Fold:
Amino acid sequence: MNSEFRLLSAIDIGSHELRMKIVQVNKDGSFETLDEVNNIIPLGRDTFTMNKLSFESVNTLCEMLEGYKQLMNDYGVKTCKVVATSALRESENKDYIIDQIKLRTGFNVNVINNFQEKYYSFKMLKNVIESNDKNLANKNALILDIGAGTIQVSIYKDSLIKTSRSMKLGSLRISEILSSLQNRTLNYTKVLEEYIDAHIENNGFIDIENKKLNFFVIGGVSDIIASLLNAKSSDTQLKNINKDDFDGLYEKLINNSTNLISKELEIDYEKADILVPTLIVIKRFFDKSKSDTMVVPNISLVDGIIYYNAYIKRRNSLRKYTDDDIISYTKKLAKQFNYNKDHSDYVENAALHIFDNLKNIHGLKKERCFLQLAAILHDIGKFLSSEPHYEHTFSLIKSCGILGMSDSELDIIANVAKYHSSQLPSTEHVSFSRLKSKNKVMVAKLISIIRLADSLDTSHKQKIRIKKINIVKNNLIIEGESDEEVLLEQWTFDSKSEFFIEVFGITPVLKVKVINF
Amino acid sequence: MVEFNNDLYINRELSWLEFNQRVLDESNDDNNPLLEKLKFLSIVSSNLDEFFMVRVGSLKDQINAGYSKSDAAGFTPKEQLKQISLRAHKMIEDQYVLFEKIKKDLSKYNLIFPKIYLLKTHQLEFINKYFDDIVYPVLTPMAVDPGRPFPHILSKSLNIGVLIKQEKKDFHFASVQVPSVLPRVIKVPDNNENGYTLILLEDLICNNINKLFEGKNIICSHPYRITRNADLSIDEDEAEDLLIEIEKSLKQRKWGESIRLEIDSNSNEKLVGFLKNKLEIYNKDIYYINGPIDLTFLNTIYKLDGYDHLKQKKYYPVTPFDLLGKIDIYKAIRKKDIFLHHPYESFDPMVKLIENASKDPKVLAIKQTLYRVSGESPIVKSLGQAAENGKQVTVLVELKARFDEENNIQWARRLEKSGCHVIYGLVGLKTHSKITLIVRNEEDGIRRYVHLGTGNYNDITAKLYTDMGLLTCDNYIGADASAVFNSLSGYTDVPKLNKIVMAPTMLRNKFVELIRRESEYAIKGKKSKIFAKMNSLIDTDIINELYKASMNGVEIDLIVRGICGLKPKIEGISENITVRSIVGRFLEHSRIYYFYNNGSEEIFLSSADLMPRNLDRRVELLFPIEDKDIKERIKNYFNIIYKDNAKTRFMDSDGNYRKKKSESGKMFNSQEYLCQLAKERASMHRRTYRKKFIPREKPSN
Structure:
């Protein structure tokens, strides 16, 4: 392959459709879409009702994937990222299916969770907004990402994602779950509305903003809605829909049957079927956003995956694996649990400072971000009760999830955060023993660092100003200054050093110069 | 809203018959060389054969299925058959009158077709010996009696019906097939060095019929021919494998019901009655032929050596203007879109493009749709080789191209064996589009080269059909081409297209939209114009749109070679519409659609005619011409056609076609002019080319 450009492809095995995109990434970083294909395969219909995928579906899926492979060959594309979302993630037989796909097509399927999925599309959305409309980029926004299985609602502020929540309200899922009721009521729409409202009841976090928000809708059949309304686009990628127009369409379609919609609007039956639930979901959030237009960017998960792999991944590595959106999201999450910002910031900085100075000793790279996130969140368990707060920290992280993090990465972060305190990791603990063995050592290294960092601010008063960290012979020497006496810190540091010595065979030494004392 | 009544439309079949009449009229045009006239007679016959097999066959099917809805012109299938029979009888009568006339003219050039009894003794001896040695051994007479049922007579085969006197019964019937393995035309030795004396095989057999039925009393023997229904209807929904299903129905085609009987006009009434009875044929489907049955054999006479002076001078297609002096075709395409105008300009660049692509290390993939290809198609060969060379080759082979099915199945299998990804068409749709995509891995990225055309990828017909093609590497068209193939391959459900418009999903709406846009300008009092050239115009909805546009004041000039269901120049309806048809030495085949668009003229080329089948049941493509030079060339092409008064016939409001006499009396033949123009351009280039590159001689001191 030429060095002037490289080719990349991504496949999204979605719950409702299969999609592939092939792009050419030029030397200057620009993208050109070479090909884009999609087929409707409503895998979610199987999973959301029977909890597993049928063999017929898997067969069709593999046949399609073989076709996609042929298409990749047409361009000589060697790299393909294949991801799967809810339909496969929630399927009981997913491991067999992934194996089947591997055997039949050679593709390695990566099952991603909601937080990864939305992270990818969000990164792409940000890119599209920022490169198309600077004006839009600076405003606060409510982003609704509608998948077939789940929806994700995010708040975007000052160019960063602030908060994000996922709900199992994907349009295909709703239509599948409630389809049996369709023949039992004359007012199916009301049932739909009640179901949806019940699920989005507790979303106070949107109202907190209490301001007018720009409203973005990604995915689902939003592109169909846009084309039905002949949405004007300021450019090729962003389409605007007027609130009144949307409400008009909502009123017109809301009480119609799928058959009628499909016929009248000349759209595919499969798509018509999920149109009404989608409209209801959009309507709810459109109203909440108080915006008078809805922006539909023409992007999908495959765009996000390609953008991530071609650009973000490399950029993050240049920035020491720090992703502003993930950090911003995580801090907002910590704030929701009334964390002590000063302490958390201190531990975060200290931990990263130590990590960076130990580069040659721990040999870790991208794991830096796990340490950072664990440091930010390490005390959130205190929101529930102080003892044992670290246990609560662990379960809160696990149940809340973090933007962009896979399930196993979340496990790592939760473990690192959990063992910052008194308890030491042990294979007798379920949380730690569940980690893959290759990850156990890495997690132990991160734990030993976070413990030191936390001990430097035992008093939560940020007394010690770290001046220098370096390794001299078999010692890690941390030099600092303080205006106060640091006896508590020194004592904790010494006791928490034991685990560090155990892991690295290096003894940490804290030297604090007390000024004006 | 105006109600459009039946009077405003012409029935499709009757309109087609009028087209065939225009072909026949060429046999009567003294501006055509004698043998060309003869060739047109042959074309009329083969056209009629297909018409009966398919169109008449389909109408019979409709009647059998109890379908009795009338068409836009108000005719039920039954009424249509009646009209067809009347019109066809008249046409065939005219055809044979012309044949006699041309025969007489040909005798002036020592090409004679004598009755056998007029032959000289030595000639008779020759043909009788020929019969005994060559013909007799391959003949199989089949008698019909209570023990031997009426034999199966092959569709379109020529046969001789024989009545034999019987003692107790009235007569006995026997049939002999005129062997298709032997030449129909027999050259009889004569003293004439510059000519030919020809007799026909069936006459020879009739003359020797006694030898087949020795000892029997023969009442009479006459040639006859039957045509069977060949309307191929396949139940595609139930067809698991289209390939097998088509092979099956090809076999069935041989057994379709008899829909036409052609028989020697001097035949005995009893013979006719017997055949009519056995073949279950209606009186109106019997055609008494006053001369040789099946005039397609005239094509062999056309090909006889030594008569070039009675033919039109052969035209050799020249290098396309846009490619003159261009060595690297890819470079040329990158620089600007390339226009190909066949047959004036050669089709070879396309053949070579595929051939080179099969060997080009930079080429990753070749994708092509093939509808009708020539027997030993060099394109098919190259595609096979490309696959063997490791290229990704995707070929969509339309198995349902009528009467080419058998041929297509064979080479499609060959392609598959050499590693091509072969798609055998789509269920329920015929893929009629002509598109080629070449994906190349170039220094600065992946680049797509696309060819889009109005005609098939057939190197033989490209010399006879007027077609247009576009070679481009426009990014949007490239992406569209990929999307089209993706949807044909089933990789994607609904293709998103930027510039290309595809039938059956979007093309109809696009045409309506384009026509209405002109109307809107006309209503605003602005200039508005539609030029359209196609083979057939029979879609009622589109015709109505054109009527409405005309009523709004849009100026519409249509060049419709064949079927045209629209009537021009009707007061209050189509006053602003003209319809003309060109039938010349080349078969007019290009489909061009021009819209004035308030000055931002838009020109599209397409594989589609304006027929329901093209818009609703076929995969067709419409693509824009955006290059300024090419636009000018196409606009100029319209001007050239509008000047034609040699081969152009105008349709009047009654649906009749007439040539217009020019005021100056000068004849202008657009096809000949374009041949001339292409040649001149090519030779002009050769001259300048030489001028540029001849090195100066070394100056002498």
Observations:
- Chain B touches chain A at residues 364-365, 367, 392, 394, 421, 439, 441, 443-446, 475, 479, 482-483, 486, 489-494, 496 (CB under 8 Å).
- The first helix of chain B runs from residue 12 to 26.
- The radius of gyration of chain B is 28 Å.
